[in-house]
Amino acid sequence: MRAKKGRWLDLHNPIRVIAASNRLDVLSPELRSRFAIRKLSAYSRSDYLMVVKGVLSRREGLQPEVAEMIARRLDGLTQDVRDAIRVARLTPKLGIEKAVQLLLSIKLSRCD
Predict the structure, then answer these.
(1) Alpha helices in 22-80 (DSSP H)
(2) Cα(87)–Cα(100) distance, rounded to whole angstroms?
(3) Is the pTM of this model over 0.85?
(4) What is the dihedral of CA 52, 58, 69, 65, to 10 degrees?
(5) Among residues 55, 79, 80, 83, which one has the least CA distance to residue 67?
(6) What is the pLDDT along the chain (112 residues), one digit of tens a residue?
(7) Distance (Å, rounded) from C-alpha 60 to C-alpha 11?
C-alpha cells in the first residue's frame, strides 16, 4: 500500500492488542465483543508464596531468606504481589514488621 510522499506501507505486520480491566461491566458490549476475555483466578497459597519469593529475589535483589520471610508474613493478608514489593522496599529502613503494619494501615485507610 502506498503511503505519503511515495513511501510504502507494509500492512503485513501482525498487531495484537492486550487490554486489562478489573470491571468488565463498565465496558460496552460493543467493546467487549472485540476481545477474547480471559478471567484470572487468584493465586493459591503455595503459588503466592512462590511468586513473591521469586519476584523479591530476582527483581528486588533480596536474599532468598528475607524474601521468604516477607512472603510468609503477608500470607493470608494479601494476594497482591505489589504489596510484597512495597514491603520489601520499606524493609531496609523500617524492618519487615513495621513495613507490613504501615502497608496494612494504608490499605485500611483507603477502605474508609
Answers:
(1) 29-32, 45-58, 64-74
(2) 6
(3) no
(4) 150
(5) 55
(6) 556 676 776 677 777 888 888 888 999 999 999 888 888 888 999 999 999 999 999 999 999 999 999 999 999 999 999 999 999 999 999 999 999 999 988 876 766 5
(7) 40
